[in-house]
Amino acid sequence: MFKIAQIACKLTQNHRIFYPIVQKTVLKQFILQRVRLENLRSPFNSKPKLLKINWNPLVSFKVTFALSILTWLGFNKADEEKDSELIMTLKRAVLCTQREQFETAEQMLHLALRIAQQQQDYQGILYCYDLMANLAFNTYDLDKAEKLFVNVLQLLLGDGTSEDDLKVIHISLKLARICQLKANIERADLGYRWCLEKIEHQRKVNEDSEILYGVINDWYAQYLLDVGDLPKALVHLNEAYKVCTETQGLKNEKSMLLLNDLGITSFRAEDYEAAEKYLREALALGNQLEDKTHLGVIHANLGLILLQKGVINEAEKLCNTGRKLGSIYVFTSPNS
């Protein structure tokens, strides 16, 4: 059985970024770099390369599921409503993170940690470490994120929290992700499978566990894509999509992103009919959403599939639309 200590304490140090966890400012640089790399590829490649939509896994479905940000690690509603120095500092840190003011957020979290330590507030210390870990994870500082997540796990387990607790599973999932991003494939695989095993028997207990079950399937599918296991990736992507639609409804961005992933995976498996079906569904859904940020990528992906099938005119229209949308929502976004 997978042991938390294995994934927490024995990670390799080489970095290979597969599935970018980036904010919009970093995403812009990443896309430009990928475009340059793709332009260097041979123009005689027989199969076009579809684009993976980059999204932040820390906000997949819900950051802390259905829970208040201050109740996830032990704060209650009364604590959240207090205007104590610690609570207010934590709230400011969260607000800075949401505004992508990461340096200020980190400074506020260090201040909050000192306050919590001075007050000997266990829950406050725990929550500070968790927010620090997520901030490091969110900004790609994987070594720092790993150490902080280990600290959170040690505090939780040392306080008697069970390995079956959703908090432990959630943090272990992030550590598995770090293993994947560091190209520690064996430990990443062990970590994902351990998380699936732990959540399986309690997935129907409440909405929180059901959503976490969906997130684990989604992340495991991305890992399986990374190692080239397309059949299993499709199974877990379909499971994630099923959970997403059951818990979040059909009309939401995450459902659209999962449909795009299903289309990409089907394309890589050379099932072009399924790929077209998923991407047309993603496109129809995206047209109904207010946020059109990712719609250009879906247009381009569907266009490339139709190009592969020889439907030239429609493929050209979709790719041109994708290019126009991409220039609007990626390169000139006021938040980018």
Short summary of the structure?
Helix content is 68%, strand content 0%. It is mostly helical. It folds into two domains: 217 residues, Tetratricopeptide repeat domain (Serine Threonine Protein Phosphatase 5, Tetratricopeptide repeat); 87 residues, Serine Threonine Protein Phosphatase 5, Tetratricopeptide repeat, CATH 1.25.40.
Assigned CATH architecture of the largest domain = Alpha Horseshoe
**Shape summary:** globular
**Overall helicity:** 55-70%
- Helical region count? 15
Pfam families: TPR_12 (PF13424)
GO cellular component, one term: mitochondrion
Protein name: Tetratricopeptide repeat protein 19 homolog, mitochondrial
Subcellular location: Mitochondrion
Give the topology:
Elements: H1 4-9, H2 24-39, H3 77-81, H4 85-98, H5 102-118, H6 122-138, H7 142-158, H8 166-181, H9 185-200, H10 207-227, H11 230-248, H12 253-268, H13 272-288, H14 295-309, H15 312-329
Helix pairs in contact: 4-5, 4-6, 5-6, 6-7, 7-8, 8-9, 8-10, 9-10, 10-11, 11-12, 12-13, 13-14, 14-15
Question: How would you describe the overall organization of this protein?
Answer:
With 336 residues, this protein is mainly α. It has 2 domains: 1-30 and 55-241, Serine Threonine Protein Phosphatase 5, Tetratricopeptide repeat (Alpha Horseshoe); 250-336, Alpha Horseshoe (Serine Threonine Protein Phosphatase 5, Tetratricopeptide repeat). Helices cover 68% and strands 0% of the residues. It has 15 helices and no strands. The longest helix has 21 residues, at 207-227. The chain is globular and about 65 Å long. The protein starts with a helix and ends in a 7-residue tail after the last helix. Residues 1-46, 55-73 and 331-336 have low confidence and may be disordered. This is Tetratricopeptide repeat protein 19 homolog, mitochondrial. Belongs to the TTC19 family.
